[in-house]
């Protein structure tokens, strides 16, 4: 059966921790979307890994990178070296049809952001968006295309010809890359990855036929979805979990979906954020939660939990249970607010409509008493402070699905099962 982890907010909910945690009993983990624009941090004891290409696990597993994932070759190679150096002897399978994010794409993303000026998306500038454009325009470079250097030269030259003109004449910038160097490094990295090439649709289809479990890791999160998120402040592709079927290349089927959410909201980059805090409470959350981007290191915008969005994300993805993280971060704050409805000009509006004008909505809040500092570890739920239990009960009732996991620290061991 497919078991998936999906983010219910704007990303960085702690999905990596839950992929690692849930992978305890599952031997196969697959990634099917996104690229090095999203990083997942995982910690177990003294080992801390940051993954943006390989599925996030510090356990020995079968790791699949499926067709919809976008590959930054140096980052992938670094992550493969990391797990090998840590003696995590996972087996790795990579679909040769994955598209490659080139240094040229990074330059394009940066030039396009500069061109957009104050309307910029706030992209991390890795190049994933430009890579997706080339994929749709049918002149992208797939992993399989990197192996034959002369064929790669001709494909890259075509792409370079188009994109260099765009950078020079549309964006008024200069390409700072060397074509021959990009060709050579792309070819060399491709050769290094070649031993892992596998048609992952077949591999995963076979596992499902045998009744094996596969854990799916969704990169980014619901409200960065290109269609149902806060467009245009989104990524360039869809992030809803059900896109996995097309991105892996398997038929739609029933799956178990864990929605991961933080006990508050954060957002990196631009875009509307109704519950954003501009007060010292935001600094409190940011410092205690170490809310700085894994990839970009940018300070994250922080705000109160928005249950309108959480409930909407639960329904959009078909979430079956929730994992809530970072309840330790809020501890000690005087009072906690949670958005439970949206209003525009005195009228209550639903989430679909609100998402089209999220910069205009006024959140209506419910206030909760906060809990005191949490302990390092807990044996069971009964030990949790009653204020925290009230907060959790309200969330699961509002969202309409149970909270199954409560994470009160970054370590794998700091997780309670409800
Ligand atoms: P992801 O992209 O959704 O995997 O999230 P990130 O890795 O960007 O951010 C999650 C961060 O929060 C990581 O640094 C985790 O180690 C950390 N983290 C996860 N769960 C908890 C928790 O319950 N409490 C605290 N304080 N940190 C957590």
From TrEMBL:
Catalytic activity entry: IMP + L-aspartate + GTP = N(6)-(1,2-dicarboxyethyl)-AMP + GDP + phosphate + 2 H(+)
Binding site residues for IMP: 12-15, 37-40, 138, 220, 298
Positions annotated as active site in the UniProt record: 12 (proton acceptor), 40 (proton donor)
Cofactor binding annotation: Binds 1 Mg(2+) ion per subunit.
Residues binding Mg(2+): 12, 39
Cofactor(s) needed: Mg(2+)
GO annotation, cellular component aspect: cytoplasm
GO terms assigned for molecular function: adenylosuccinate synthase activity; GTP binding; magnesium ion binding
UniProt pathway annotation: Purine metabolism; AMP biosynthesis via de novo pathway; AMP from IMP: step 1/2
Stored NCBIfam families: PRK01117.1
Function summary: Plays an important role in the de novo pathway of purine nucleotide biosynthesis. Catalyzes the first committed step in the biosynthesis of AMP from IMP.
Protein name (Swiss-Prot/TrEMBL): Adenylosuccinate synthetase
Protein's organism: Xenorhabdus szentirmaii DSM 16338
Gene that this sequence comes from: purA
């Amino acid at each position: 059966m497919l078991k998936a982890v999906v983010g219910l907010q704007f990303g960085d909910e702690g999905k990596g921790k839950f992929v690692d945690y849930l992978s305890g009993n599952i031997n196969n983990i697959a990634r099917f979307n996104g690229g090095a624009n999203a990083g997942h941090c995982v910690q177990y004891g003294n080992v801390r890994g940051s993954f943006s290409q390989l599925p996030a696990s510090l356990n020995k597993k079968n790791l699949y990178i499926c067709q919809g994932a976008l590959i930054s070759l140096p980052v992938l190679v670094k992550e493969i070296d990391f797990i090998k150096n840590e003696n995590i002897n996972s087996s790795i399978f990579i679909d040769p049809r994955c598209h490659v994010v080139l240094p040229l794409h990074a330059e394009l993303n940066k030039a396009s952001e500069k061109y957009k000026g104050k309307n910029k998306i706030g992209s991390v500038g890795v190049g994933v968006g430009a890579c997706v454009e080339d994929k749709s325009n049918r002149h992208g470079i797939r992993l399989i295309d990197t192996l034959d250097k002369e064929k790669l030269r001709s494909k890259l030259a075509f792409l370079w010809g188009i994109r260099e003109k765009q950078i020079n004449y549309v964006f008024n910038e200069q390409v700072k890359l060397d074509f021959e160097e990009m060709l050579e490094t792309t070819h060399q990295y491709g050769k290094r990855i070649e031993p892992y090439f596998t048609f992952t649709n077949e591999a995963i289809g076979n596992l499902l036929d045998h009744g094996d479990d596969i854990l799916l890791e969704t990169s980014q999160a619901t409200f960065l979805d290109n269609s149902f998120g806060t467009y245009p402040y989104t990524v360039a592709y869809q992030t809803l979990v059900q896109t996995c079927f097309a991105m892996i290349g398997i038929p739609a089927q029933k799956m178990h979906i864990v929605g991961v959410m933080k006990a508050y909201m954060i957002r990196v980059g631009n875009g509307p954020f109704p519950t954003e805090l501009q007060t010292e409470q935001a600094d409190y959350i940011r410092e205690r939660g170490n809310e700085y981007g894994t990839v970009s290191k940018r300070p994250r915008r922080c705000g109160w939990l928005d249950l309108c969005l959480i409930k909407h994300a639960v329904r959009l993805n078909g979430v079956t249970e929730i994992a809530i993280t970072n309840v330790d971060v809020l501890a000690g704050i005087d009072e906690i607010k949670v958005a439970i409805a949206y209003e525009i000009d005195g009228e209550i509006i639903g989430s679909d409509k609100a998402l089209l004008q999220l910069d205009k909505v006024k959140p209506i809040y419910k206030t909760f008493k906060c809990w005191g500092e949490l302990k390092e570890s807990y044996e069971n739920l009964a030990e949790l402070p009653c204020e925290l239990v009230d907060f959790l009960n309200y969330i699961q009732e509002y969202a309409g699905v149970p909270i199954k996991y409560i994470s009160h620290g970054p370590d794998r061991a700091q997780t309670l099962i409800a």
